[in-house]
Structure prediction request, 188 residues.
Amino acid sequence: MKALKDRILKDGRCFPGGILKVDNFINHQMDPILMKSIGVEFVRRFAATDINKVITVEASGIAPAIMVGYLLELPVVFAKKKKPSTMENMLTTTVFSFTKNRTYDVCVSKDFLCPGDKVLFIDDFLANGNAAKGIIDLVNQAGAELAGMGFIIEKAFQEGGKELREQGIHVESLAIIESLDNCEIKIK
Ligand code: 5GP
Prediction:
């Protein structure tokens, strides 16, 4: 997606450890016009896929997921990182955070992830695929079906994309970063 790649090259910044900072248009300040185009592109790429629900993880996945849900007129569910005391019928899994270097629990109510659901997972980044694997676990626990996974940015020098595709999952990434070596952003 050209507009996204141009924006990453213009505004993205590299941090040690292979981290790309895009917090002036995705992760902190958000660009709704670009986010709308991101939603349109996801809809185009998953046009042949049977989906009845969009799922993401709070917080940064919510903006692209809501765009996709809005365009497809489907509900959007976000997995929560803190279990609300009022939430019953929870499905829970543990995820290792690449950027924070620690594990955290994510949970979703069985009321909103149900047997027979065909879910599209949308998130901001794909790195080692830990958040994605957590969602796969929740989808399996619910007896739902994973229809596909869409990421705004995939870092191809980490293993997540390869592992998910090897499992036969339909993965779409709108910008694929080949390398951040020497603080230089190289996009496929
Ligand atoms: P994974 O679970 O695939 O290892 O990592 C994906 C999650 O970690 C994303 O949801 C994102 O929040 C965060 N993440 C991973 N790599 C980066 C990065 O280079 N930059 C930013 N901003 N977030 C990242």
About this structure: The helical segments are 2-11, 32-45, 62-72, 130-142, 160-166. The chain has a mean pLDDT of 96. Residues 77 and 138 are 12 Å apart (CA to CA). The two ends are 11 Å apart (CA to CA).
